[in-house]
Amino acid sequence: MSIPPRIGFIGLGIMGRAMALNLVKAGFQVSVYNRTRQRTTEFADMGCEVASTPRALAKLSDTVITMVSDPAAMDAVLEGPEGVLGAFSGGNTLINMSTVSCEYTKALAAKCRVAGVNFLDCPVSGSKPAAESGQLVLLAGGDEAVVKKLDPVLKAMGRAVIHAGQPPAGTALKLCVNLVLAHMTTAVAEGAALAEAQGVDPALVFTTLAENPAMNCGYFALKRNNLVNKDYPPAFPLKHMLKDARFMLSEARAKGLELPVTQAVAGLMERSYNSGYGDKDLTVIHRNLTEPLNAAKE
After folding, report:
1. Taking the mean position of all CA atoms in its chain, how far away is CA 48?
2. How many domains would you assign to the chain?
3. 75-105 pLDDT, tens per residue?
4. What global pTM score does this model have?
5. Quick one: 230 and 270 in the same domain?
6. CA proximity to 171, closest of 159, 183, 181, 162
7. Which residues 6+ apart lie within 8 Å of 224 measured at CB?
8. Residues taking part in catalysis
9. Residue 137 contacts residue 124 (beta carbons within 8 Å)
10. Which of 6, 154, 289, 292 is the most exposed place for a label (fewest CB within 10 A)?
């Protein structure tokens, strides 16, 4: 019988907290680290060890999972004298579930290879509800044998693991999937805004989509209340999707590919971000679309 991995989890935000809790519920030995110490309290109450630094966490673990916001946050926990990489020895595993750039992922994979560390490039598809219910889809880039070995760990956080190839294939696939998600969000937000402008109840847009077998989509149902009630609690914060859109456009430019619709969507997200809405759900782009209508009513 194989020995279950000692898991260290870094990043207890909207997604990471739910994912780490699911690992604990699945019976894994989990230690945690988070820059904001307050977020570790519930894990300490469950008997999880709370590390004072990323390095200390790595010393407690043979498998470290990172779920942080961006490349800068990754550098903060991986590099330097108190970083994870300095504490690793050959045979450890690093699973990065944060969405970063393909370029960053390639460089990280190379660092791990030199250090003799197994690496999985494994971002996730799904937002807060899917993370809480363990229904994420995990997009894994790495050696097939490593993906298979860690399948029980990954399946504790998600419903499916898709092996995309070698790093940065997981990240590349995530950017493709999030491109579609960004367009879907913009399309339904614009549909709701156009309905309101024409004096039609925006809720009827969602009723119609739900009745059409070709257009009945779980994602639209998830976002219905945000757009009908004009309230945007963060399941997937706008600032994170904007970051991803910038990565998409950067990758496209590097490959000589035009993404004109994505460019326009990114512009709308920039507008909402600059309005101070970065921490709200990405559906908050709807607020900017309807601002002229609201002004006309005043």
Report:
1. 24
2. 2
3. 999 999 999 999 987 889 999 999 999 999 9
4. 0.95
5. yes
6. 162
7. 203, 206
8. 174
9. yes
10. 292
